[in-house]
TrEMBL record, chain A:
Organism (species): Leersia perrieri
Record domain Dehydrogenase E1 component: where: 148-198, 202-363
Highest taxon of the lineage: Eukaryota
MF term (GO), any: oxidoreductase activity, acting on the aldehyde or oxo group of donors, disulfide as acceptor
Protein name: Dehydrogenase E1 component domain-containing protein
From TrEMBL, chain B:
Biological role stated in the UniProt entry: The pyruvate dehydrogenase complex catalyzes the overall conversion of pyruvate to acetyl-CoA and CO2.
Annotated signal peptide: none
EC identifiers of the protein: 1.2.4.1
Name recorded for this polypeptide: Pyruvate dehydrogenase E1 component subunit beta
Source organism: Leersia perrieri
Record NCBIfam families: PRK09212.1, PRK11892.1
């Protein structure tokens, strides 16, 4: 496990070292580099002077930044460090790259006039939009994707019910978001590592994107924007144009995709994966969708949004039926297949629930094991005391915890 | 040990008495007398070096650990020796790099994460506790996290409220974490090696003011296979009248207090906890059963601190052995003042320990600290 990670890290670091060489004063200055590599890996950090207390990170910059060294060829760098940029514009090589000056005071607007466009392939009736570019899927893969979407839909219904019946304690459904779950996974291979999270964008999301961009890690950051964080709508969560716009802020390529379009999600993730691997870069994918379901079994979303809004997205915008229309349009699916699938899936799930419910609950020892690699003495002691108590008062001990 | 006594005494006449009471630092094995000295900094550096050499999956991460040689020079020379694959300089995002390190540990690597001080670990505490400490339990033993979080903890000198907090009680509260606090160079070497080899997440609380302190060190400790057991306290000084329990820098203060007390006919036993979680309750209680009196010493805030846990352990197991109420010496219950005179008043001094020990011995002394 360790070796491939280190090998990849090595090659990335080797690439970075090579780029550092290119941008050093010794190398050919013909390539104009806007972004010197890894700001914290300055090639000429002077040795620390004396016994400084260094608990605040302090960057020391040498007199000559690497960007200065790669000034545009033919230009003589004037002594004051200014580089002519044409006309009466001037530029200076601050750390981080050359920037041109302007005399007007221009604030960047807080938002673009238009939102970032959304990639889609299938129209609302499940027909491919003419001129659309997408990744072809075989009949086998198309049917597999559809079957999994249906399975997810049926599973959500059954398990939501099970929670209401008190058979499980908590559940979150993915109604209206099935295309995202399945199509994104379909575009990956079994060896790709998936780290799914139910996490609204915070803290280490930003650190992760920043890190990945700087380290040039082959990672796909897949952000499902379903419009809600429990009862908080997105316009109260952030004022940027969704998540996709943040890609550029971190120096990362990004795309916005129609999350209810299984083919678009599949294509975008497929392409993102290729880019990530071949180019050694992270990609941010924002899939727009709508959370048809309540946040969880503990939530009643009719309390904070109109019922007809939910209904609209549940019916007209349903990703499962939309994709089904496309699969059927190709002659790969029919109504008989549909009833058979739904029936089989339902039976399979009900059977799985029965099997799970019959499984014995964890025994008493499981309470104490795996806190650490080895059970510590205090827990061994507690278990011993507990077992003694159980022996003395067997009638008071719960029947569903096996000794 | 002998070297330490000599250092603390300063004057020869008491030496004979002291030597009779002190126990040799190493066991009965016939190692030559401690001729070598080592600073805590050197001890930590050599431990990291040796463990990285022995196991290629061990790597370091943190701010300034590489090119800068470490904010406190603990990782000096390691980037040159092991290269940027094994010593990673990170951007200023504890949440970011701690998350990455824990993820690496999930995949079988053995990261040693440096926090420039443990105050900054609060930026990453969700990862330390929820991503690291609880994973083995939540995964029924399938995801173990062999990670070490290390760095200076507690008060330094003049670094102000936000840079002076002690996190021993915070992290020792959590099942799934191990929490160590070395005092001497031997502690630093042995405990850090044990921490790196341990399959569980370990919080390793160093002390900035101890980095430069020198301790005598035996040949056994210098061996690359040396390690100390986690969860075992050390009796630094044997005594029979009162037990003084401390960790980290306060062990030094406790030893000084014991010296002063011995001149007044009070024989203090000083215990260096070494391990905050698991706490060596057996050693604590064995000592209190012997002396019948207890003083706990910590530099951190008093409420819900390590001293409170030690006291409770003694009340639970050795209540009838106590001849006096337990005395708890801790820092003042205020954010650390910046003004040097007030800072001095906000942390325990040797005199505070001496007075507390005397109170347990019914030598009535006013509670208030001297000006």
């Amino acid at each position: 496990m360790a070796a491939p990670w280190l090998a990849r890290a090595s090659s990335q670091l080797a690439r970075r070292a090579a780029r550092r060489l290119l941008s050093s004063p010794a190398a050919a200055p013909s390539q104009h580099r806007l972004c010197p590599p890894g700001p914290w890996l300055l090639s000429s950090v002077p040795p620390p002077a004396g016994d400084r207390r260094g608990f605040c990170s302090v960057r020391r910059f040498t007199g000559e930044s690497s960007a200065a060294a790669v000034a545009v060829a033919d230009e003589e760098a004037p002594e004051n460090g200014l580089v002519a940029g044409g006309g009466d514009q001037q530029a200076i090589d601050f750390p981080g790259g050359k920037v041109s000056f302007v005399a007007e005071m221009n604030f960047l607007p807080e938002s673009q006039r238009e939102r970032i466009n959304c990639y889609r392939v299938l129209d609302d009736d499940g027909r491919t939009i003419s001129g659309s570019i997408f990744q072809e899927v075989s009949k086998e893969l198309a049917i597999k994707m559809y079957s999994e979407m249906v399975t997810l839909q049926v599973m959500d219904t059954i398990f939501f019910e099970a929670q209401r019946q008190g058979r499980i304690s908590f559940y979150l459904t993915s109604h209206g978001e099935e295309a995202i779950n399945i199509a994104s996974a379909a575009a990956l291979t079994i060896d790709d590592i998936v780290l799914p999270q139910m996490k609204n964008v915070q803290g280490d999301f930003h650190a992760a994107l920043n890190f990945a961009a700087v380290m040039e890690a082959p990672v796909i950051f897949f952000c499902r924007n379903n419009g809600w964080a429990i009862s908080t709508p997105t316009n109260e969560q952030f004022r940027s144009d969704g998540a996709v716009i943040r890609g550029q802020a971190y120096g990362m390529r990004s795309i916005r995709v129609d999350g209810n379009d299984a083919l678009a999600v599949y294509s975008a993730v497929h392409t993102a994966r290729e880019m990530a691997i071949k180019e050694g870069r992270p990609i941010l994918v924002e899939a727009l969708t709508y959370r048809v379901s309540h946040h969880s079994t503990s939530d009643d979303s009719t309390k904070y949004r109109p019922v007809d809004e939910i209904e609209h997205w549940r019916t007209v915008r349903d990703p499962v039926s939309r994709y089904r229309k496309w699969v059927q349009g190709n002659g790969w699916w029919c109504d008989a297949d549909e009833s058979e699938l739904r029936n089989n899936v339902r039976q399979e799930l009900l059977k799985a629930i029965q099997v799970a419910e019959r499984m014995p609950k964890p025994p008493l020892s499981e309470l104490f094991t795996d806190v650490y690699d080895e059970v510590p003495s205090n827990l061994r002691e507690q278990e011993r005391l507990l077992r003694d108590t159980i022996k003395k008062h067997p009638a008071d001990y719960p029947a569903d915890v096996h000794i | 040990m002998l070297g330490a006594a000599r250092r603390q005494l300063g004057s020869a006449p008491m030496l004979g008495q002291v030597l009779r009471r002190l126990r040799p630092a190493t066991s009965a094995r016939a190692y030559s007398a401690a001729a070598k000295e080592m600073t805590v900094r050197e001890a930590l550096n050599s431990a990291l070096d040796e463990e990285m050499s022995a196991d290629p999956s061990v790597f370091l991460m943190g701010e300034e650990v590489g090119e800068y040689q470490g904010a406190y020079k603990i990782t000096k020379g390691l980037l040159d020796k092991y290269g940027p694959d094994r010593v990673l300089d990170t951007p200023i995002t504890e949440a970011g790099f701690t998350g990455i390190a824990v993820g690496a540990a999930y995949q079988g690597l053995r990261p040693v994460v440096e926090f420039m001080t443990f105050n900054f670990s609060m930026q990453a505490i969700d990862h330390i506790i929820n991503s690291a400490a609880k994973s083995n339990y939540m995964s029924a033993g399938q995801i173990n996290v062999p990670i070490v979080f290390r760095g200076p903890n507690g008060a330094a000198a003049g670094v102000g409220a936000q840079h002076s907090q002690c996190y021993a009680a915070w992290y020792a509260h959590v099942p799934g974490l191990k929490v160590l606090a070395p005092y001497s160079a031997e502690d630093a070497r042995g405990l850090l090696k044990a921490a790196i080899r341990d399959p569980d997440p370990v919080v390793f609380l160093e002390n900035e003011l101890l980095y430069g302190e020198s301790f005598p060190i035996s040949a056994e400790v210098l061996d690359s296979s040396f390690s100390l057991p986690i969860g075992k306290a050390k009796v630094e000084r044997e005594g029979k009248d009162v037990t003084i329990i401390a960790y980290s820098k306060m062990v030094g203060y406790a030893l000084q207090a014991a010296e002063i007390l011995s001149k007044e006919g009070i024989s203090a036993e000083v215990i260096n906890l070494r391990s905050i979680r698991p706490l060596d309750r057996a050693a604590i209680n064995a000592s209190v059963r012997k002396t019948n009196r207890l003083v706990t010493v910590e530099e951190s805030f008093p409420q819900h601190g390590v001293g409170a846990e030690i006291c409770m352990s003694v009340v639970e197991e050795s209540f009838e052995y106590l001849d006096a109420p337990v005395e708890r010496i801790a820092g003042a219950d205020v954010p650390m003042p910046y003004a040097a005179n007030l800072e001095r008043m906000a942390v325990p001094q040797v005199d505070d320990i001496v007075r507390a020990a005397k109170r347990t011995c019914y030598r009535s002394v006013p509670m208030a600290a001297t000006a």
